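User: Structure tokens for both sequences below?

Assistant:
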Amino acid sequence: MRKSLTGLGILICLSLGTAIAAPLPDNIQDFIKSSFPDTNFRFDGVVILPDNTVYLPLIPSKFNDGTEVKIKSTIPAGQTMAQKPDAIILSNDYVLLKMLTNSKGKNTVVNLTIPPLELRTGLLPQDMLVPKNFIVPANLKNIIGNLNITTTHDTGLVIPVSQSKESAAVNSISGIVPLQNKMFYITSNITKNIQVVNPVKKVADYALYQESTPITIKGYQDFLLVTSYDKKSMDVISLADEKVIKEISFKTQPDEIVIDEKNKTAYVSSGEDASIYVVDLNTMTIKKQLRLNGMCEKVILSEDGTKLFYNDKQTREIWAVELDNNYLLKEIGRFPNVSKIAYVNDKIYVTSRTKNRLAIIDYDTMGLMSENEISEKPVDMLAYKDTLFVLGAADKTIDVIDTTIDTRTQTIELTSNQFPTKMTRIGNSNLALVTDAKAGIYSILDLDKKSVIKVNQLETPVNSIVIMNQIKKIGK
């Protein structure tokens, strides 16, 4: 069955989201990047230089949107962008205010007896995440607009975790380069809070408080995207501030998140609404709603970003959405107790949790090519080059499938005595973590050598794990 979703992919208006984000115009970004190429331009307008210097933009009520941006004046006077002055007034009347720290350790901006007109009449982006303990000089209060400024001590989401006798215990990651300078963000079945763990430790440094139990967490740049049970919104957590920077609202509870980093897009499913929402990660706003057949789950994105696949948990039918073909909806077939879907070399791979079978479907013909026996209780798959790794929870093994001939070439034995449930690739490296939902343990899998190279301990079991670069905190 084929069905076009063109008419059902609708632009989402403000009723489904918070205020429109305010990223800086491209010509201003280009001007800043000429001095600091690796600058992070956050979707709420905040500018973070590579050394963590923060600039807050003031948007003029009326400005000259010329093609070339130059400096009109600076405070102190006569400085260049590279010198990082306290304030930069641009030729189009935009102002960049450097975030400073006063004598009491509070975040603030430059305090002038008579501020220039551009400072007095500009406005901070009205959906901007306000820095912790931010104080605005009295004669610049107009720049706040309707922003909610918290002046009391604000710890954001950070909460301490109990430190056991294992707190001083360490894991060795010597020689494992992809884990250097990384942090783990972990959800667990023993707490609703997100555990923040340095890979060299067994115990979390602290946790990020969550009102509800997370369903899915995903990392993008310096942010965590979090969906939770009984919550009709997706939280965007800034890891530099460790605060919720934005809540993206939906009609119903959002569930799974799939990220296309190349196209800066997130696909967020809602089984209750039979929809997948397209979220623009540049602005953190919903751009389109794709209405589907059935209650979607097990959502995956093809490596080239052109297709979504999902399982209808009511009918057990698998569907594909061709994103580059007017959202054409194609029925793949019905399969029992689907645990995971993968797509490699124009073939769809489907595991059945109860049947211990791997079905292989030709995408062009939708014909079943073969159905192969695999390890008991297959719960996850990871595609890498021409290899498919299939994790068997009951047998505590990983089947290695050569997708060029669709044959199991070897089986990797795991040392866990519990219930391994997920494989998470470390960035674009040749390593992956095999985590356990019942035991505080993870294995490091070399995808090229097809072998486990190390087993490390954690204090808590892992439902899901996000691996992010260590991020310097704003204002610290």
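Moving on to the next sequence.
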Amino acid sequence: MRNKTLLKLFFMFLLLITCSYNSLKAQEINEKDPTTFKYFLINASTDDDSVFSKVQTEMNIPVPFQTYPLTVDIRDPKNSTITWGAEDDPNNISVPWDNLSKETKDKLIKWTGPNKRNLQQKKYNYISIFTDVLKNIKFKDVIAPPKMEREILSTTSYINPYLNFFGGEPLGIPIKKSFGFSFQLGTPYSGPLETDIVGGGFHLLGAKIAIHTRIKELVRKRDNGATASEKNGSFSNYNNIFTPKLGLSASYVIPFGNFLEVGYFTTLDSGDYDPPMLVKNNYDTSRGPYMPNHVIVNQSYFNWEFRYPIRTFGSTRAKIYVAQFLGEFHAGYMGRELRVAGSVFDLRMDYTFSSQKRNWQFLWEAYISNIGESFGTTSFALGPSIRITKGPNSSLAVVTALLNARFKLGDFYAEK
């Protein structure tokens, strides 16, 4: 009897150890599984999911934001909290975790998007300091369909809260969904100091009419008034686009999706001719003694863009495209607020094919978005912009290497 009792006690002890081990194992943090995080940050955006609007409602946030940091700490069941805003921000709002509904809490715990990051301290070794970034990249989020309805509708595709300093998609401000305005510095495919064109457009049901003019200072130098040393320099003074004093463009996004936009550009007033600087061509003289520029005086052009809106690394706005604009062919990619391993950034790449007017060109831009703190995390972004093309002395040269930036304006772009 005594042996049987000891045997039972021994098996009960083994069972207890096994259950304890399984319980501890279940509580382990798995970096590859965001649902196991107990102390985490979400760079929340209402564009991602309606739960991030619901969180602000349940936390009684007086002025809700479209994008904001959200910190959840549920390591201690008796003292679990959720914080709206950065933890070190004196204006943040922190409430008990139980103030949220069960549905909202479950959604946050089970959230696996690339904008969720584990904050619990972990040990590092000589290898992990290099490999942890790769482990945090969620490759299932590399490419996904867009989540915003306006990105796939022909009548609302112009709506865009991002204003680029040089080039990029126009800022699109809706007055009422399919009716609104847009503003442009440069072309959708240009970089810093590449062109002098600016414009403003009116949008209605997928149609656009825009007026364009020029700001000469947006291109670094012209021949008139340039010093001798400036005329001998080649930085940013070739492979540019010079536009007329006044131009008119019209375009239309073909219905049944935001895939094809066709348009037309014509010159209304060429203005006084102010020729670009002449940079001597020492490498490829087959195109003449000077480096080429695209000078528009009285021409008209048929334009089109075929694009496919996608969502890359949780981006808020992204597309791949091929296009013809002002007589030049383009192919490229543009994405806003990509989120990879805790970093938030914009990425823009455009390849301009060689034409009778200009040499080929590759534009690469990467803006770091999470420079600001708390609610300013995505409000602006800053980063390098590099243009590569044929040079006056070689087959490959950097024609510009400057900073570019963009602002994100307003939260009224969020869809209800």
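User: Anything stand out in the second?

Assistant: Residues 354 and 360 are 4 Å apart (CA to CA).
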